[in-house]
Write a structure and sequence with these properties.
six-stranded mixed sheet; 35% helix; Nuclear Transport Factor 2, Chain: A; globular; alpha+beta
Length: 146
């Protein structure tokens, strides 16, 4: 983690999103940490406002369903003005549906999140989860080779 003793609001908001919306499967947290007019830039989820909220909520449910034991650790962060960058690690076991039947395999992926925070809420988000590593470790790529 960054050497600073004061953890920025952007880091705290992202930790809530990861811990509560994704790991715990509580999609309503999205509405508590994202501004009503949020701009979502992540590939596959790009949208604004209510549509962005719904897409991120759906992603949280899907991640939780795919790996109910998933846990996220924020490894490092940086901040400049109203922008916060976070590097996190997600660890879990694929025990729920994920492009087919669950494999039961453990996985560990990196996630990079960048947020703009204004008035105590996330107003913009860019997310870069290592989806390829997840597909490989969960056995999805093995099924494609067969």
């Amino acid at each position: 983690m960054n050497d600073s003793t004061e953890v920025p609001l952007g880091v705290r908001l992202l930790q809530r999103m990861l811990d509560e919306a994704f790991a715990a499967g509580r999609p309503e947290v999205v509405d508590e940490v994202m501004a009503p007019d949020v701009i979502e830039h992540q590939f596959g989820f790009a949208s604004t406002g209510p549509e962005a909220h719904e897409r991120v909520q759906r992603a949280g449910r899907e991640v939780h369903d795919m790996a109910p034991d998933i846990r996220f650790t924020i490894e490092d962060w940086a901040q400049s003005g109203d922008i916060t960058w976070v590097r996190a690690t997600g660890r879990g076991t694929n025990t729920g549906p994920f492009f087919g039947a669950p494999s039961g395999r453990p996985f560990e992926i990196s996630v990079i999140d960048v947020v703009r925070v204004r008035d105590g809420l996330i107003t913009e988000h860019w997310g870069i989860p290592d989806r390829f590593a997840l597909l490989a470790q969960a056995g999805v790529l093995d099924r494609l080779k067969a």
